[in-house]
Amino acid sequence: MDGAVGRRGRRLLDLVSRSGDEPGDGDSRSPSLDDTGRLVVFETAASNLLAPSPVGAVSADAGDLLLADLGEVAPDGTAQAPSFARVTVQPDGQPASAPAAGPGIVLDGSCGGLRDARARCGGRGPGPPRRRARRHRGGPGPGRIHPEPGSAAWSVVAEEYPVSVSTTDLDLGTTPVGGRSATWYTTVANTGDAPFVPGSITSTNDEFQLVGGTCRPDAPLLPGESCTIEVAHAPTAEGLATTEIVVAERDHGGAEVAIDVSGAAGVPSLQLTPTSSALGPSMVGVPTTARLVTVANLGVVAATVSSFSFGGDAGADFTVVEDHCTGQTLEPSVACDAMIVFTPTTNGPRHATFTVSDSTGSTSSAVVSGVGEYTPVTGVARPSVAAGGRIEAGGLGFPPDSFVSVRWSGTDLTTLIATDARGEFTTRLTVPAVLTAGSHHLTFVDPSGRFEPVNSPEFLVVRPTRSGGASPAVSGD
After folding, report:
1. Radius of gyration from C-alpha coordinates of the chain
2. pLDDT tens per residue across span 86-103
């Protein structure tokens, strides 16, 4: 990108990424223009746009966010050189070296466009325009740039958008020395707000072989997406063996995740089937239909089932609800059954390792997965209400201990409400006096994007009568 932006209402194109008549000495991209056409925030790798030059302040692979003030256009249509201020600064005013990307400008004082309503908007009503720039991943706290005295009140806020990746640890069970286990897979899920781009995928123990999967170096994993890594165990000696599968971004300071994988070498006795089970999507906190799993004795002597267990970050989301195996001694070729359910504790893809062990320490494992969803339901207490009166609204199925933005239909007016530990709320809202008479609804929006906006049932807004006040059915009480 050459940093050029158009001015609103002018047939003019300005090269923003320039110092005097010299263009920036590095790439610039992702401009975001305010509604006046005068302010633009953008990513840049250029080092000559600010004086003094920030030599050594930003690493070669780190981004920098600059705010450019393009100034006024001269009567002859020429534009002055822009003045710059750095957005990506530490609290002490020094440049930040953490990568930054995707700047945006918020053009009003509402909370609707902000990711963290509690941190930025809690208890505040509409105010002067606020500008925001997104940080690609972690780093110093938010930096603020203020205008010259006497100018309009605004600020640029750099907010952190960290990469967050979840994985599933694996237990590959028991494999004979010199043989190779079945192929297992582990899932890498991007649960953050910024892309995750693997630069390398490695195993720290050569006994554990990476044999396939959909995760690829340099293939971006966007927020909400997942990929798989397939692994097999080829033991060379008796006993327990472990490895870490490390998935790391290539960039300096990039994210990295390590997946713990274990396996035993010996004579296997138990076999758990199926080796992978997808228990389907479910509303957060609501269990799925139980799924059947089978444990069979593959050995030549009797084996006693000692325990079931779930491992991994989402292990607590899965439960054995019927167990006809634990404590049972299985003769060769004999099997027993158990039932498992998935009860998601949060939204998004959830994965775990399901392991059965016998009394000798031999194990067999399977991968279980599911998807948690927030499916909110809302309602209002009365079908009609007077403009300026109060209406009671409630909901369930929302993220617990969180904030939800409520917007009145036909307006830009929003209100923040809090949910309780069960993801429920009941609140009384004042109906804006500016609402026109007729049918309206409330729209509930998650500032963090964990569920799609949901509308309440419609209700009727009436104008209060001047002579006798509102009728009891539309009272403002």
Report:
1. 29
2. 776 655 555 655 555 556
